[in-house]
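Page header: ASSEMBLY MODEL / two components / 509 residues total.
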Amino acid sequence: MSEASIPDEVLSDSPPPAASLTPWLTIHLEHRFQSNGAGFHLHLAFSAYAQRTVVFGPSGSGKSSLLRAIAGLIKPDVATIQFHGTTVCNTIEVGGQQRIYIPAEKRRVGLVMQSPAVFPHLTVSGNVAFALHGQDRSAQKQKISQLLEIVEAESLAARWPRELSGGQLQRIAIARTLAAEPTILLLDEPFAALDAPSRQRISNNLHQWARERGIPVLTVTHNLEEVFAAGDEVLTMEEGRVMAQGTPERVLSMQRDRLLHALHAIPAPFPEKTSLPPESDRAV
Amino acid sequence: MDTVALLLTLRLALVTTGILLVLAVPLAYWLAFTGSRAKVLVQAVCALPIVLPPTVLGFYLLVALGPRTAFGRILTHFLGHPLAFSFAGLVVGSVIYSLPFAVQPLTAGFAAVDRSMLDAATTLGSGRWDRMRRVVLPLSRGSLLTASVLSFAHTIGEFGVVLMIGGNLPGATRTLSIALYDQVQDFQYAQANRTALFLLAICLVALMLLYSLRTESRPRSADLV
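Prediction written out in full:
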């Protein structure tokens, strides 16, 4: 695959960031893979500046694969990925640039996946303590308690994953991710199994935790409410491409205009009634 | 009952099982997760002892460990005695002969671990060996148990390889299965019956233990959410 195949950065409608401001994420990505038996082409480029960024798009648009590539769980065909200006992945060896691939375990990217993947052989405390391995016991205990409080799961500390509901498992997965002290937080539909009030409270707690530490959060969702609740900036994705980037209001209005425009292009289902020619012109 | 042969057999089975677990765990881990082209070759070599006549394996080992090969001479130099016709030689033969009985259940168990668990551990900062130790091995306890019991039981019952490499030296290489063969050759059918029953009982108890522990370790359907 050639270097030229990397797409140009999506033009953002939002005002350009100040020259000194470094995006927390810059990504140029080209990756072909098989998904549900069909070929899929992830082909995108963008920079993220907002502390809370949302990727919005329908199921199967490549949102989860994008997160997996950022986290290092997918090795892309062609890519340049930078966190706060530092390259973690560069597959192109041109202009004195070196190939770089920081493995997933060293990227310090927190990823909460759709499937909570809570370790069944550890209790809730054991799961949260997974990333605290080697730390002092009392410090671990204190940290576990703080993190479980953020996800409102303090009472579950001694329970086993098999005793928990889907929503409870997702809370534990979030607490476990925060325990690793990531420098970037990626959330893939993290609140899908939670009821609306819990989703609101835990999302607020989580974003507050991230804000206090200056950790940028990239949330993937196909839920419109979440776009407004969790995003200062939104990217829309379709079929492996970024279609638009900007504030939620602006991007969604652009999307609406695009949909309306598309609507005009649809041929009318019934042809308009054509009036008969005047009687004098009729053939006798 | 030939107690010397019994103790030797149990010692051989325990040492072989211990060595096999140390060797088979990293090998099975590699087989379960590698995308290497060499995988098929390694799988085939590991499975070879299942189909190969034990005497063929025993013959090649006898040649390889003997004084006519450079490898055999080096081993003899370091050990002070030839590996063939010694307990150490029996261990080498048993480890190779029982390798598939450890590698195959472990590979299947490791490969069955949910990939999302491994991805979660990776993003939590866990490297390859740390993932094996803290996620894959605990989630494959059943496979570890199967590999241990099968290796132990298979070593207890081996005959051809032991006879080829070890000969029939009482106290050094004469295992229970060889003692049984001798007893039949000497028309000591009562003794042979006791030895055979004992071997049968050990293998049956080992397999019953395996199945009961595996059933207990499986979550009950009522526990599943």
